[in-house]
Amino acid sequence: MLPHTRLMQALGYTFEDEKHLKLALTHRSISGNHNNERLEFLGDAILGMIIADYLYLHFPQEKEGRLTRLRANLVKQESLAEIGRTLKLGDYLNLGAGELKSGGFRRDSILADTVEAILGAIYLDSASIDACKSCLLKWYGSRLQTITTEPTLKDPKSRLQEHLQSHHLPLPVYTVTAVFGEDHNQTFHVQCQVENALPVQGSGNSRRYAEQAAATALLTQLDIK
Question: What angle do CA 187, 192, 195 make, to 5 degrees?
């Protein structure tokens, strides 16, 4: 079996020009110019459009705010990384020596970015949004069928903000306290502070995710469900 045949079977798409798939699997730690970042950019836009279209058609009674939260939950890094693991993308990634040594093939950010890059690659190879949609809906599978049983889907920062506003308290203050690692593999540490509570720390591979982690810690401290 050819190197990418099994992967294409898992993707549900056979590439006419396999160079598109190879590029989608190539991380920037291999090359500053010949990597999957541009495909990721393209795939991100396609992903957002297809998921928005699906939600618009399947939830005709939902308002814009709820649809936005549903989409955000489906396209967030953790959701895409889960898809990447299901597809076993870590077995096919083309990573630099540093990323291989540090376990980059398991990292959420790299797996999520690769899912988007592959979606972009499928579009370039097929010139068809329908091909992208068919693959993407297959990858999400039962996740789309269980949307209506999920909770409010508001992220921790939104939940914390709404709690504070409902009690007429000042909004939380997020402060980056430290950043470690190289540009392609950074860890952010963020402090979250609100009135009448001890400050808490959160960490993540971007400022956004570190802030969400800090907000989660504060929700736990305040016993906010």
Answer: 175
